[in-house]
Amino acid sequence: MAENLFKWKHFESEIIILCVRWYLKYPLSYRMLVEMMAERGVNVTHTTIMRWVHQYSPIINERLRKRLKKTNDSWRMDETYLKIKGKNAYLYRAVDSDGNKVDFFVSEFRDKHAARKFFKKSVEAPHNQQPKVITTDKYGATEIAILEEIYYGSLSCKTQHRMTKYMNNIIEQDYRFIKKKINPMLGFYSYENTVKTICGIEIMHMIRKGQVEGIQCVHSEVGMINELLGVAA
């Protein structure tokens, strides 16, 4: 028997999915969504929508990952800042030379351990292959992380590491979507919920980039997400 992900919810599954999908896809705040739903005769609080996002984002991310198209073996990697409880945290990200998302990783620290976790996660993802080239800026901790991952076998010994900042323009531009989405949030309040929210935002960005098999337009996007969450079309 299929799992009912919406059992005991006080709202229809279609409303929940709509709120979650819109929040992850567009630069909207929770309170903006409350007003948009109110115009449609649906009274829901911003905290309820927030709980929906935290619950369903990881599920959408996990199930869509199985349908991601393959990336190539030339990576551009960098990190950007987030705010969690007013303190700096870091979002590690990489794209391939075609601009397709390789992977992402949220860390409370910017150091070699965080970079190593990012590379290990990226290499182990089924939609990625061993990188022949990794381009980064000249941050020393990232260089050490790559050398250690090569030593321990996660990265191939043939992997070339280029530290050339100007060649990372492609990922700097990719940050624009994420920043446009994150900036209205005014920061996050816990590491766990940051990870849950970011994974949903990033997977929706992958859809926008055309990285998910079977999604060609917004209608197929809606249909696939409904299907993955067990809601009939």
Low-confidence stretches: none
Report the β-strand fraction as a percent range: 15-25%
End-to-end C-alpha gap: 19 Å
Supply the number of helical segments.
8
Which CATH class of the largest domain? Answer: Alpha Beta
State the shape. Answer: globular
Q: Compute the CA-based radius of gyration.
A: 19 Å
The strands making up the biggest β-sheet line up spatially as 3-2-1-4-5
For the report, how would you describe the main beta sheet?
Answer: 5 strands, mixed
Annotated CATH architecture of the largest domain: 2-Layer Sandwich
Q: Sketch the topology as an H/E string, one letter per element.
A: HHHEEEHEHEHHH
Q: Please tally the β strands and state the result.
A: 5
Structural class: alpha/beta
Count of individual domains: 2
- The CATH H-level superfamily of the largest domain is Ribonuclease H-like superfamily/Ribonuclease H
Overall mean confidence score, pLDDT: 91
Helix percent reads 40-55%
CATH level-3 fold name of the largest domain = Nucleotidyltransferase, domain 5
InterPro entries: DDE_dom (IPR032874), IS_Transposase (IPR052183), RNaseH-like_sf (IPR012337), Transpos_IS6 (IPR047930)
Keywords: DNA recombination, DNA-binding, Transposition
Organism: Alkalibacter rhizosphaerae
Protein name: IS6 family transposase
Describe the structure in brief.
By secondary structure, the protein is α/β, with parallel strands linked by helices.
